[in-house]
Amino acid sequence: MLTKKEQRLRRSRQTRIRIANQGAVRLSVFRSNLHIYASVISDDGQRILASASTAEKEVRDQLGKDKGGNTSAAAAVGKRVAEKALAAGVLKVAFDRSGFAYHGRVKALAEAAREAGLQF
Predict the structure, then answer these.
(1) Residue 103 belongs to domain spanning
(2) E-strand stretches of the chain
(3) Residue at 120 is within a domain
(4) Which residues lie closer than 8 Å to 91 by C-beta, 6 or more apart?
(5) For residue 94, how far is the Cα from the chain centroid?
(6) CATH code of the domain in which 76 resides
(7) What pLDDT digit, counting tens, does each position of 64-81 carry?
(8) Stretch 81-87: mean pLDDT, rounded?
(9) For 23-32, what is each residue's pLDDT tens digit?
(10) How many domains is the chain built from?
């Protein structure tokens, strides 16, 4: 019997294999109970081209009293990572949700990144 974490990691492995075969730059998301993190990773998987999280001071200041564990915080991170990726010259990415369900904070981050100009 697999634990909940092992099930998520198994799902994420399948996604990463599919994205690697495409040879695409990927937008990887990780969420914990308190924070959400997003990174744009090069197609060879060796370099992080852009990243943002609710743990960054600028994002925490922008959120004010709100914590990083809600959808508005995730949307702020999505917008910020998209702006950084566009500045780095990345327009198209493959969305890697790391085995998390496309729902709630993960969905809010993805939609905000799309609105800010990333294509996936």
Answers:
(1) 4-115
(2) 26-31, 36-41, 48-53, 94-96
(3) no
(4) 117, 118, 119
(5) 10
(6) 3.30.420.100
(7) 877 878 999 999 999 999
(8) 97
(9) 999 999 999 9
(10) 1
